[in-house]
């Protein structure tokens, strides 16, 4: 094992479904893909992840969830991200999105089972979907980059009292709403506390809810996916929330898609300081 990879492994701590990363090296952070293989290939090429990973460089590829469903190449996207994880297990991080949620929180419509049957046949499609469902329970629900940012697919669990609430949200669901909010919630301006979400799951949360979590974790920013953005990204809550959306293919109509590529040693008090690191594409 080379020194760079050994250093990477030593900088990672896992508790439950939460990962803590030391602020070392570089990363590409990818938002929702929804079966968009073309955009995934663009991101891999533009970020040069494969070349850097093969050289043993400390470069992480972090996916915020929602790999498939909706887009027509969902099976292919799942195959590619899982193959990347297999090839570079200590450099690729797969997070759980609401389209990888538990059985009682499935999105509607939920196209993935039909996409798998269409491609592989009814029986094989059902078997593959059953395996993926088991896999979804193993995906990370939060990543904390020490002193920098917390990564969650959807939003802030509003009743969080400790880091354990993030780490073990999957075990406490559905008794507690932490997992539901982490997968489904959205930030809103000029709101104090929370309101029910029009999505039918999760909540709308205000800047005060964001600030509470950031203070608890000792970080500056929340980086998330979950929401389609016209430019591929958007900033909320006075620069404390950055949303990334990495597809602009049907059924979505946003003009651009985007991902974030940054060096962890660079400190940012606001998401506005990271705009220069956001890579947009069409």
Describe this structure in words.
By secondary structure, this protein is an alpha/beta fold. The chain has a domain at 19-148 and 162-168 and 227-281: Purple Acid Phosphatase, chain A, domain 2. The chain is built from ten helices and 15 strands. The protein has helices at 3-10, 37-47, 49-54, 74-87, 112-120, 122-136, 163-167, 169-172, 178-184, 207-217; strands at residues 12-15, 18-21, 26-30, 59-63, 92-94, 142-145, 149-151, 186-187, 194-196, 203-205, 221-224, 233-236, 241-244, 257-263, 278-281. The chain has a seven-stranded mixed beta sheet. It has a five-stranded mixed beta sheet with strand order 5-4-3-14-15. The longest helix has 15 residues, at 122-136. 45% of the residues are buried. Mean pLDDT is 94; it is low at 1-10.
**CATH fold description of the domain at 19-148 and 162-168 and 227-281:** Purple Acid Phosphatase, chain A, domain 2
Q: Tell me the CATH superfamily of the domain at 19-148 and 162-168 and 227-281.
A: Metallo-dependent phosphatases
CATH class of the domain at 19-148 and 162-168 and 227-281: Alpha Beta
The average pLDDT score comes to 94
Low-confidence stretches: 1-10
Could you give the distance between the termini?
38 Å
**Helix count from the secondary structure assignment:** 10
- Major sheet, described briefly? 7 strands, mixed
Question: In short, what is this structure?
Answer:
By secondary structure, the protein is α/β, with parallel strands linked by helices. It has ten helices and 15 strands.
What structural keywords apply?
single chain, 282 residues, alpha/beta, Purple Acid Phosphatase, chain A, domain 2, five-stranded mixed beta sheet
